[in-house]
Amino acid sequence: GGGNAFIFHLNNILLHIANSILVYILIRKISPKNAVVALITAAFFAVHPMHVESVAWVSERKDVLYSFFFLLSLIIYCNYLKLQKTKLLIFSAMFFVLSCLSKSAAVVLPLVMLLLDYYNNRKFSKKSIIEKIPFFVISLIFGFIALHSQEGAVENMAPGMSFVQHISIVFYSFMIYIFKAFIPVHLSAIYPYPIELENAGTLPKIYYLSILCVGLLLYFVWYSRKWGKNIIFGFLFFVITIILVLQFVLVGAMSMADRYTYIPYIGIFFIIGKLFEKLSEKGKLNYKKYFITILAFVFMAFSAITYGRVKIWENDDTLFSDVIKKYPDGGSTQYLNRGAFYMYYYAAKVYKDDSVKREIYKKKAISDFQNSLKFKITVNDMVLVYSIIGKDKGDKGDFAGAINYLNEAIKFDNNYLTAYNDRACAKCMLKDYEGALKDYNKVIELNQKDALAYFNRGTTKDQLHDYTGAINDFDNAIKIDKKYVNAYFNRGTAKFKLKDYDGAYEDYNKVIALNPKDSDAIRNRDIVKPLLKNVKK
Q1: pLDDT at position 537, please?
Q2: What is the pLDDT of residue 238?
């Protein structure tokens, strides 16, 4: 990409277009009699606002990529059901492996294959079981790899909850996913757990009612068998492909995510397509006209919402400002991410030469970091935030305040090099050289190839009148960086204090050789020159 994100976004868009075409092909295989069913399913898949996250977020390339191979595998399996050729089953398995290599969510594919058997009235037999054994083996292997690789990688940030509360959140999320399939409003990059759970230890009543709602929905789906298999197939397709992300096992700080609906919504859209097919039968032309009008309006509305949603994903400022607007008490993540964007992009890059705007965004960043500390936060993030705020206070001259924050950072991570270094600097400004020396010792213990750390410790020793120790540290800094001008200069000054005038003269010469316009080195060399044992020519 050469530093340009366009190539990555283009890749995601092309994969999404390909996936939309594959959805059309898959539904045509499943329901070959009426192309409109496939067209409706693919059309809503292509433009649905809940799919923006999977396509606009570069990191979610894995979503559109696994879906590409997932859909190909299912299409080939549909061909196998018709032709019963073993090579098709092999090709289907190959694409299934590629899908699993893209994202572990693909492991549910064998269950979808069983669902296709059911929809195609295929009898449950020994052959139908044996042919799927390789697929289930692949699922188990990749499922194990995924669980093992992610163990400890994501810290559970969910609030404490009872079993009933946990199930209520799962069922509520399930219902909201279905609701947003039809009415995609209040979309967010982050859906935090309800604040009431953290503050009052309880949930809003709607969460508990969701258990009843899911029960009624399941009853309706079971009852729909009287009308055929379409609703059952679409609903089970949705359930099978979303069940792994329903937070039965609590991970992270979010109860749900838009990206989880990328493949599952195919089942919902299929039901809509089949409903249109039903209303298009003879004697129901009026219903068909109304339904076409409604579908056209919904398609245009979804397209408009999607277009607006894409703009929200423009950068971390627009994205996390949107989350904060919708969930101001939703947790630390949105404040951390927006603060990092303000600090490391706007302040450090975009406005690095505009002191006024740079300070404005640094101030905004610090405000966001401080807000993040009001919520549950990972230890690593907490250490980083305390360290950043501490350094900012030090830069503004509040050295005591800086030390307080840096103390907190070190308390949670006693090997955090940056915090020790910044705390040492603050201690030096308060003339606590002994304390600073201890911190620099720790910095060097953690990184023995840090020339700056040796230089800073040498400067601190100089303040404590340990000139020999200072020279030794400057020697080490110069060994690491042969062109370390300040190390040569300070070593020359330390040698001068020990009356090693010849050594000081040589160091000042080295400074001038590296920087001929260094007036301080020229002046100091002139002071030393008359004190030399042998006048230098």
Answers
A1: 44
A2: 97
d(CA 387, CA 519): 36
Other residues' Cβ atoms within 10 Å of the Cβ of residue 318:
13
Token pair for residue 479?
């060994």
* C-alpha distances in Å from residue 201, one per residue of 10, 164, 195, 204, 510: 45, 12, 9, 10, 68
- Fill in the amino acid letter for 98: L
Residue 532 has a pLDDT of 87
Return the HEC string of 475-537. HHHHHHCCCCHHHHHHHHHHHHHCCCHHHHHHHHHHHHHHCCCCHHHHHHHHHHHHHCCCCCC
Query: What is the model's pLDDT at position 153?
Result: 56
Distance from C-alpha of 77 to C-alpha of 61, rounded to nearest angstrom:
24
The H or E element containing residue 157 is: none
Tell me how far apart the alpha carbons of residues 503 and 482 are, in angstroms, rounded to a whole number: 17
β-sheet bridge partners, residue 192: 254
Whole-number pLDDT of residue 61: 95
- pLDDT under 50: residue ranges of the chain: 537
The DSSP secondary-structure symbol of 343 reads I
Do residues 230 and 115 lie in contact, with contact meaning Cβ atoms separated by under 8 Å? no
Q: What pTM value is reported for the model? A: 0.85
